[in-house]
Amino acid sequence: MLASFVVGASYPEAGGGSSPGHGTLIEHGVVRSGSRPVAAAEVTLLQAGDRPGAGARPLARTRTDAHGRFSLSYPARHNPDAVLYLTADAGPAGHGQPRATHRVRPVRLVAMLGTGRRTGKVVLNERTTVAAGFAMAQFTRGGEVAGRSPGLKNAAAVSHNLADITNGAAAGMLATAPNGSRTSTLRAFNTLADILTGCTAGQTCGTLFDLAGHPGAPAPRETFQAVADIARLPGHHAGELFALADGRSAYRPRLTTAPDAWTLALRYVGNGQELDGPGNVAFDAEGTAWIGNNYVFNADPRQSVCGSRILSRLTPTGRDVPGAPYRGGGLYGVGFGTTIDPDGHVWAANFGFQGTGCPLDAGRLYRSVSEFTADGRPLSPPQGWRQGDIVQPQGIVSDRAGNIWVANCGGRSVTRIPDGNPRRARNIAPAGDSLIKPFGVTVDTRGRAWATGNGSDSVMLLSPQGAPLRSITGGGIKRPMGIAADSLGNVWVANGGAVVAPCEGTTPAMVAEAIKDIVTRHVDASVTMVRPDGTTPARPFVNDGLFLPWGIAVDGNDTVWVANFGGHRLANLCGVRHSACPPGLHTGDPISPADTGYTSDGLERNTAVQIDPSGNVWLANNWRDVPLQTNPGGHEMVVFIGLAAPVRTPLLGPPRHL
Known about the structure:
It comes from Streptomyces antibioticus. Helices cover about 10% and strands about 30% of the residues. It is mainly beta.
């Protein structure tokens, strides 16, 4: 039986070592392959580079003894945000000899220490390496770690949600509910660690590197980079990689069949009694996640609930920020609308969601937006900001100038709040039936706003000052829901197909009835790209990763991510920048497996998808698979680790690479 080892973390997290005084720190631990010590491995303590392309800086180096143990000393750092990590390089079977064909030893085991100081033993093994490789996938090139904060330091902390270097077991976050035995992520994680043991034993390194390598790119030369490459393109050679675990039983429990892709998705629940129907998520400058909820938390779906009056805020590792969740400011039944402006103020759109049987009159509560300071203090009054004829608001975004745009799903209009000043709010209602059930809203590179019309099969383009410019139809736009801008001026539309927005006379119960019998991809489920001039390709983009598309986001490489209200899957499409896609793919082609998308049994019915500064992809488990209308809400955010190109936050219109 091969054991496992990792570094524990929270937010903010610790890394470093005990101090003997005089500005010198000591780090000590052990290197193992499973339960077997790795002798004569070269152990290096490194400080990660502080920007892309900056080399990691070695701080100390030593070798393990016959029992795999090591101890090294290094000078105390002056930068508290510097990210430290340990590598252990060895030849096959841990003999400490490089292969003749490699200048780099093929076995590299890694443990992320993170920032700050910590005490206690550190263990490096296959589990810690998988944890580090996935969490740092977007910051690892050529086997070295480098990147900007907060993404880099947050990613180091997230690695400790997967593995715990103090005891060699899977981390508590991964090993226990709502993860653990409730999803397949723990089994996938252990299977990946088993795959590495074949290389550690000197048997499968060449095959592993060939399979992990990306098309058109050099193959990785050591195990840590191989894991990072797998994490960034997890659907590539998934079955062949699974075969490398045959006959290996170091880590349990593990998968019994090959996955469609090697993704690791964690469920986050904050304090465990707050998320109920999370609708959307917005990230602040430090990467903490602000989340509006549809319903008051109740674990029993048969108990009738009213609209949520809290705003959740999670650390990058999924715990509550101290003091959160927040209350007041008129919050009630927030839906798809949560955003952050350039001043760090958080805005939530009060749609008025509530379960059947709630005695409150939602019609008196769904006419406002709420505003909070960056530390969670409400700025809006107890009834919320009500200027601008807000009615059943759904999508809400801030542009870079601080103007707030609100899609009034029940009002056939958009409300613009100039400079975030509610007293100047103005309602914009395009003529005729050109904007029915506006749902999603985004801002492009020119500061123009685009709003989807779920009931009019259209997208409305507005000038930066709010003047309606044109209504876009065609190109496959059908029941559009979410919309997102890329950095090249295009916007991307998620066509729900069969999803009717629950406003203007349509109730959530009607939505549930309309989708209950849809068990395969609906004919109109698709994504449409709208060019800056308002034109579209003749046909929308379609693949079986799209199943009742709802939320949509664009990452730092301009690839497109789609959350689905059905099918338990996440889709990733090639954007306009073909250089960011695997060779041979063109705009709209699926990067995720075309037949399935990136599936996860941790997903339920998802509305939002957003990318954080570490490249993690967050989805909202908004409804349960079988949504009893007394309380249909799901209770988790689901986070795919290290899967996308990081985005600078807060997101103010088009994405910017971190």
